[in-house]
Write a structure and sequence with these properties.
heterodimer; A: mainly beta; 6-stranded mixed β-sheet; 5-stranded antiparallel β-sheet; 11 strands; about 0% helix; B: mainly beta; 7-stranded mixed β-sheet; 4-stranded antiparallel β-sheet
């Protein structure tokens, strides 16, 4: 079945550094979504990408929809302590377009002040 | 702005007991999705409803059932609980099938179920 491979699994960086994480799939996705999850909370949508090659920014976050439609990356510039959390890529999957999402395994980000 | 409300936030049950989790979507949202997230895992899709009808089903055990009511809130009923059911259960909602068009949707804060 469809699977999203997300890397790296975890990152421990210094405040102010830039961060990059990516997601790949063996299947084509028509939408790529990036979520952030804080401990004990639900995922929060950060960026949504709908078109191959699309580059979208949301503040210090930038994400791109790969040309092959099988990958996406998320960059965080000038990290701050509140960026700590788990970042997930996700995409709608399955037939019927019901909106169910498949998630990557997540990237745990820790920022040292 | 109103968000997706889930209750209870925490629930402790014993094996073989039953549990009911409730989800109140954002006002006017007509679609509800349920996900299960085990410790250290990514969220896994369980089931969804659109306009009070089941729209899709994922890896939901037969011991679980769910429905969406006339006011669009949804309940996830879990019976014969097992230790492995311990997880975070998230509900998400969207408007007019926007989720189905890949626009992403809003998640609630979840219910943490612990089975002992």
């Amino acid at each position: 079945g469809q699977q999203l491979n997300q890397s790296p699994q975890s990152m421990f960086i210094q405040e102010g550094e830039d961060v990059s994480m990516n997601c790949t799939s063996s299947s084509i996705f028509n939408t790529w979504l990036w979520y952030k999850q804080d401990p004990g909370e639900g995922p929060v949508l950060l960026i949504a990408l709908y078109k191959a090659g699309e580059l979208t920014s949301n503040g210090r976050l930038t994400a791109q929809f790969g040309i092959t439609r099988k990958d996406s990356f998320l960059n965080i510039s000038a990290s701050i302590p509140s960026d700590v959390g788990i970042y997930f890529c996700a995409g709608p999957y399955g037939s019927g377009n019901t909106g169910k999402l498949i998630f990557g395994q997540g990237t745990t980000l820790q920022v040292k002040p | 702005a109103a968000g997706v409300i889930q209750s209870p936030r925490h629930l402790i049950k014993e094996k073989r007991e039953t549990a009911t989790l409730k989800c109140y979507p954002i006002p006017r949202h007509d679609t509800v999705y349920w996900y299960q997230q085990g410790p250290g895992q990514d969220p896994q899709f369980l089931i969804s409803f659109y306009e009070k009808m089941q729209s899709d089903k994922g890896s939901i055990p037969d011991r679980f059932s769910a429905q969406q009511f006339s006011d669009y809130h949804s309940e996830l009923n879990m019976s014969s609980l097992e230790l492995g059911d311990s997880a975070l259960y998230f509900c998400a909602s969207s408007l007019n099938g926007a989720g189905a068009r890949g626009y992403g949707y809003t998640f609630g804060s979840g219910t943490r179920l612990t089975v002992v």
